[in-house]
Amino acid sequence: MSQTVFISGASGYIAQHITAKLLAKGYKVIGSVRSAKKGDELKSLFKNENLSYVVVPDIQADGAFDEALKQHPEISVFLHTASPFVFQVEDVEKELLLPAVTGTKVALTSVLNHGPQIKRVVVTSSYAAMFANEDIPDVVSDETTWTELTWEQAKQNGLVGYLASKAFAEKAAWDFVEKEKPNFKLSTVNPTYVFGPQLFDEYATGPVSTSVELIKAVLKLQPTDEVPSVQGPFIDVRDVADAHLVAFESDAAIGQRILLQDGRFSNSKVVEIIKANFPEFKDKIPAPKTTHEEEIKSHCKLDSSKSDKILGIKFISIEQSIKDTVAQFIKVKAV
């Protein structure tokens, strides 16, 4: 297979796993990174001649991807994974909303103008763009629902801003396709909380993705601490990577929003898994005050049956995902 896939934000947590899956299937991969240092680091870790990189310092800049696409007319698939995922921000509009929306529009405009041969585009969105109302048990969120936050509401704080940024960016992508009628077909991948190990141990030693930081926070609890009540739908990063390949390889995925979830996790469940599999944490981590069932009962239902049928993937369990995540943290002495 000699197809060439472009992936923006190639040094990211999910993007690295996607790149590994692509290379394993024989694709050639061109990744965008913010600096040559990051690109060289990736190449030295992957050690694969089918991986190369281009430097795109600012994905919001007009024509950010133009040169990359002009120089590589062999690219036939464009995966846009680059987007901000932070909650601690001073200016929600400037640091979250505008980068997410503008970055998406810039990427698609570059493909429209300089990648006429590109037939498939996949945008990494989020369940954050889909949920109707997390706190109403009778509500069902699925591939048809949208987060109904306004731009003004989004500016409240970083968390609300992040949730809204994913919806605004994804809507911008679908609106772009409807308006411009490009040569390419669009799909989006909408993962929930993403757990699982970093592809390379080196990336587990420092700050990790916001979702995985939740696991690290539990591991750092002391016996006298209280276990924070945290819950949400989850998926393993390796399944997210597989879904991105299906999203451009399968005709069934054309024009679809692919919701990725395999049930709900809670900190109660995370503590239970850690205590059962890692004796060194059995007496260190305090016991939760609530059960898993109590933590998740008051939240909405998710229906991803349409996406599950398109994907045909047997998902990695929450137990395996947490075990692999914790084992890596222990291995690199991150906890």
Automatic annotation (TrEMBL):
Residue ranges constituting the NAD-dependent epimerase/dehydratase domain according to the UniProt record: 5-253
EC number annotated for this UniProt entry: 1.1.1.195
Any one Pfam family match given in the protein's UniProt record, by short name: Epimerase
Listed GO MF terms: cinnamyl-alcohol dehydrogenase activity
CDD domains xref list: AR_SDR_e
Domain of life: Eukaryota
Keywords of this entry: Oxidoreductase
Keyword field contains Oxidoreductase: yes
EC class name: oxidoreductase
InterPro entries in the record: Epimerase_deHydtase, NAD(P)-bd_dom_sf, NAD(P)_dehydrat-like
Keyword Oxidoreductase: yes
Family under the similarity heading: Belongs to the NAD(P)-dependent epimerase/dehydratase family. Dihydroflavonol-4-reductase subfamily.
Protein name: Dihydroflavonol-4-reductases
Species per Swiss-Prot/TrEMBL record: Scheffersomyces stipitis (strain ATCC 58785 / CBS 6054 / NBRC 10063 / NRRL Y-11545) (Yeast)
Gene that specifies this protein: GRP3.3
